[in-house]
């Protein structure tokens, strides 16, 4: 009879071992599943990291494009101001004729025309010497030789206007 309790204990122990084996198998499957999820999450994170880098690079390129466009707007503003000053200097001769003395007409026109020449030179200087270089933009910059040639011609026109003011006939 002493064997009966021993056999019961052995049966219960065998059942516990089977349950433990089943639980161990289930835990192994859960661990495998978790490992697969972790690997998938790692791949997704790596892809997101690459996408973030690509996104940051693209934002940098777009910022460089905006910088180029802003510099061109500044260049255009300098040229526009120079043209307005040139027209004002030339127009001062006709507008002030007979209203103020000739020396005042010549000095006002000269100041405006000299300011226009300064604007043409400043436009090229600001466009060519920007300080630190931005990252490589996608857009093309205006070729420097075109700016120098165009603004050089405008500066010659301003010089001719200045000589016209000094040596040409004024009013009265």
Please provide a written account of the structure.
The chain has 172 residues and is an all-alpha fold. Helices cover 84% and strands 0% of the residues. The chain is built from 3 helices and no strands. Helix 2 (102-128) runs antiparallel to helix 3 (144-167). The chain is rod-shaped.
Features:
transmembrane helix, 3 helices, rod-shaped, transmembrane, DUF202, single chain, mainly alpha, membrane, 172 residues, Putative membrane protein
| SSE-based structural type | mainly alpha
Beta-strand fraction estimate: under 5%
The helix content is: over 70%
Radius of gyration: 42 Å
Shape: rod-shaped
* Number of β-strand runs: 0
The largest β sheet comes out as: none
> What order do the helices and strands follow?
HHH
Pick out the low-confidence regions: none
Count of alpha and pi helical runs: 3
Number of domains: 1
């Amino acid at each position: 009879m002493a064997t009966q309790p021993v056999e019961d204990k052995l049966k219960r122990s065998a059942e516990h071992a089977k349950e433990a084996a089943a639980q161990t198998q289930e835990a192994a499957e859960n661990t495998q599943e978790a490992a697969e999820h972790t690997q998938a999450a790692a791949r997704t994170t790596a892809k997101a990291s690459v996408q973030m880098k690509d996104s940051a690079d693209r934002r940098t390129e777009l910022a460089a494009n905006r910088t180029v466009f802003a510099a061109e707007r500044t260049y255009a503003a300098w040229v526009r101001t120079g043209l307005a000053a040139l027209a004002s200097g030339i127009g001062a001769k006709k507008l002030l004729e007979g209203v103020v003395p000739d020396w005042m007409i010549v000095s006002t026109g000269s100041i405006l025309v000299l300011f226009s020449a300064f604007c043409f030179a400043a436009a090229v200087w600001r466009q060519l010497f920007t300080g630190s270089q931005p990252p490589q933009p996608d857009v093309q910059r205006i070729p420097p030789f075109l700016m120098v040639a165009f603004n050089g011609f405008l500066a010659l026109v301003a010089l001719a206007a200045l000589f016209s003011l000094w040596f040409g006939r004024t009013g009265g």
